[in-house]
C-alpha cells in the first residue's frame, strides 16, 4: 500500500490524476482534502530520502479559537 498526495496533503483529481491511495495496483481513494479547524495546515518543511522511499513533512495549523477563547 502507498499513497500519493500533493504538497498540501490533499488528493485531488486534477492534472494527470496520479494522486490517491493505492494497494495491489488498485486506487482506493481518489479525492481527499486535509483541513484542520476548517483551514489548510501550513507546510513548515519537508524532506525526501535519497532513494525516494520516504517523504517526511512537518505541518502546523493556525491558532484555532472557539467563541474567541483559546
Main traits of this protein?
single chain; 70 residues; mainly beta; 3-stranded antiparallel beta sheet; 5 strands; 0% helix
How do the helices and strands line up, and which of them pair or pack?
Blueprint: E1 2-4, E2 20-23, E3 26-29, E4 42-48, E5 55-60
Antiparallel strand pairs: 1-2, 2-3, 4-5
Q: N-to-C SSE series?
A: EEEEE
DSSP helical segment count: 0
Main β sheet profile: 3 strands, antiparallel
Strand element count: 5
The largest sheet has its strands arranged as 1-2-3
Radius of gyration: 15 Å
> Approximately how much beta-strand content do the residues carry?
25-35%
State the end-to-end CA separation.
39 Å
Q: Which spans of ≥5 residues are poorly predicted at pLDDT below 50?
A: none
Judged by helices, strands and strand pairing, the structural class is: mainly beta
**Domains, number:** 1
Overall pLDDT confidence: 82
